[in-house]
Specification:
The complex is a heterodimer of chains A (about 260) and B (about 290).
Chain A lengths: L7 H12 L5 E4 L3 H11 L6 E4 L3 E2 L13 H5 L3 E2 L2 H10 L5 E4 L3 E2 L5 E2 L2 E2 L7 E2 L6 H7 L2 E5 L34 E5 L3 E5 L6 E6 L5 H6 L6 E8 L5 H21 L1
Parallel strand pairs in A: 1-2, 1-5, 5-10, 10-11, 13-14
Antiparallel strand pairs in A: 2-3, 3-4, 6-7, 8-9, 11-12, 12-13
Helix pairs in contact in A: 1-2
Chain B lengths: L2 E2 L2 H8 L5 E4 L8 H9 L5 E4 L5 H8 L3 E6 L3 E2 L3 E2 L1 H9 L6 E4 L2 H12 L4 E4 L13 E5 L6 E6 L5 E10 L4 E3 L6 H7 L2 E10 L10 E3 L6 E4 L17 H12 L1 H13 L4 H9 L10
Parallel strand pairs in B: 1-15, 2-3, 2-11, 3-4, 4-7, 11-13, 13-15
Antiparallel strand pairs in B: 5-6, 8-10, 9-10, 11-12, 12-14
The chains are: A alpha/beta (about 260), B alpha/beta (about 290).
């Protein structure tokens, strides 16, 4: 296969899927996180437990859901609970090992904005809002962030803290039971917070990606790990499973239309 | 006890201008027909409450029925923005819209407190977020061990409007699948309006996560088959994903939106004209050209 044998979305999903261990309990959102979590379930982590905020617990969708509340998620679930219950008995109580989040903006301390661009009272862009993210960020054992990297998304200071990473000044996680972000997966590489300073540091780049390009796509002075690694190229098996899943998904959603 | 009535009469009698209305349904069982009736009757100055303002609230807000929105996530699921909601918040069009926003967990806790008759609910949440400065939330200490938790005010809407799969002839309402926050919203509200797919002799409670709202907790029931379209009713209908995708283009432009509301909501007498347009494929044809 040539260098262009996969898309940036594919490598993001594949690298995110690799982070999950078999048997982990995972709180999943729609889009790339859902793709990544299901790829993990269909490959190396068959016993991963997927929870969607619609209250579907232990669900094994055959195709990817288009919305958080697709019927497929309820039909394939071990149990379905109400929304108050999924957030209280399951997430808040500490039963979730890994939460996936995305956002419109992230800062160097892993704080996420999904609320507004510009001032809150006169927003330039009104984004959908926090949804389930603040409590996932607070209570999940760890958080995996997936976000395409550019100076517009990786900013010096987020316009609004919707979900807490390590706080505006990197002060840490006081008041939160969960561990916060452990990894940020972008279309260019992988960042992890420094255990001391809590600042995100570039620890690996995707195949064929130049470090300077990652630095240039970051709105703050990005630190690069001394022992910068290279992300393993997607394997044939990973790509085959992912593409079959997406193919099934697109066929299924067409037949519904 | 629940009374069987028409949707028109239920909305006319039970949803006054200026009231606080929660139309709930978490992606599934969204009470769209009831929302259209609110628009058809030109309700004004409503405070709309809903965790996930979806296409239905985009329509109600765009039609100028609301002055305030209480919510936690306002997007078109799997598609992107709600353009009428954004136009109201960003530009005050067609009229200014005050917002009060929470997290999902916060909204769920507020409804549960409302259903339980408590003044507030508690959760671990909001800490460290900028939501703390922009919404009603306060930190309190546990009287038992001093642990600090967040308190949110109970939510008791004047009216809850939900869509369910079934009602039996005595007015007991049955719903299953993803039931979101509907039980809490109904039990928290002063008045409960329910549309159902079908009125049956006996509730058929075989799906996952069955819930029953007994007749004496419900005020009005109207039978509206497919009343959740483009959302779905598990066991009765499928989600119309293409409608959600095409809503993006319809709602992006003020005039196209106004023509759409005219053609499919305010022009016709009831929801059946909209469903007929869904069936013949014309319901999104304004953006085909």
């Amino acid at each position: 296969m040539s260098d262009a044998a996969y898309t940036s979305d594919e490598i993001m999903s594949i690298v995110a899927a690799r982070q999950l261990e078999n048997g982990q309990v995972c709180f999943v959102g729609i889009g790339l996180p859902s793709e990544a979590a299901n790829l993990a379930r269909l490959s190396h982590a068959p016993d991963v437990v997927l929870i969607y905020e619609s209250g579907t617990i232990g669900t094994r969708p055959d195709v990817l859901p288009l919305s958080i509340g697709d019927g497929e998620l309820a039909e394939q679930a071990d149990l379905v609970v109400s929304v108050p219950e999924v957030f209280s008995y399951w997430l808040q109580a500490g039963r979730v090992d890994v939460g996936f989040l995305s956002a419109a903006q992230i800062d160097r301390f892993g704080n996420l904005n999904s609320t507004v661009i510009g001032p809150y009272d006169r927003p330039r862009v009104r984004l959908p809002g926090a949804g389930g993210a603040p409590e996932i960020a607070s209570s999940a054992g760890e958080v995996i962030v997936m976000l395409r990297q550019s100076p517009r998304t990786f900013v010096e200071s987020v316009d609004f803290v919707s979900s807490v990473g390590f706080g505006r000044n990197g002060e840490g996680r006081a008041g939160h039971r969960g561990g916060g972000p452990t990894v940020v997966i972008t279309d260019l590489g992988v960042l992890r917070p420094d255990p001391e300073t809590h600042q995100l540091e570039l620890v690996a780049v995707h195949p064929g990606i130049d470090v300077d390009a990652v630095v240039a796509a970051t709105g703050w002075d990005l630190r690069v790990a001394a022992d910068l690694g290279a992300v393993d190229r997607p394997t044939e098996e990973e790509l085959t499973i992912l593409r079959a899943l997406k193919e099934r998904t697109s066929l299924a959603h067409k037949t519904v239309l | 006890m629940a009374e069987f009535t028409s949707l028109r009469a239920a909305i006319d009698d039970l949803v006054p201008n200026g009231s606080v209305v929660a139309m709930e349904g978490f992606t599934h069982l969204i009470p769209v027909a009831a929302g259209h009736e609110v628009i058809r009757q030109s309700k004004r100055d409503l405070t709309l409450v809903r965790m996930t303002p979806d296409v239905i609230y985009d329509q109600i807000i765009g039609a100028g029925c609301a002055s305030k929105l209480v919510f936690s996530w306002g997007g078109n699921p799997g598609v992107g923005s709600l353009h009428r909601l954004r136009d109201a918040v960003e530009n005050g069009y067609p009229s200014p819209l005050q917002i009060e926003e929470h997290s999902h967990a916060g909204m769920a806790t507020r409804y549960a407190a409302g259903a339980a008759g408590l003044p507030f609910g508690i959760l671990r949440g909001y800490v460290g977020t900028d939501l703390m400065d922009h919404t009603t939330v306060a930190m309190i200490r546990s009287p038992f061990d001093g642990e600090e938790v967040s308190a949110v005010r109970a939510l008791n809407p004047d009216v809850a409007v939900i869509h369910a799969q079934q009602a039996d002839r005595r007015g007991n309402v049955g719903l299953w699948g993803i039931t979101g926050v509907q039980r809490e919203a109904a039990l928290a509200a002063g008045t409960v309006v329910v549309t159902v797919e079908e009125i049956v002799d006996e509730l058929d409670l075989r799906g996952p996560n069955c819930a029953v709202l007994p007749s004496w907790t419900v005020d009005a029931i109207a039978e509206v088959p497919r009343g959740s379209h483009p959302s779905y009713s598990m066991g009765y209908s499928e989600r119309d994903n293409s409608f959600y995708t095409r809503w993006d283009a319809i709602s992006r432009d003020r005039d196209t939106f106004a023509r759409w509301i005219d053609a499919y909501v305010t022009g016709p007498d009831d929801f059946s004209a909209y469903l007929a347009a869904v069936d013949d494929g014309s319901v999104t044809s304004l953006v085909d050209e």
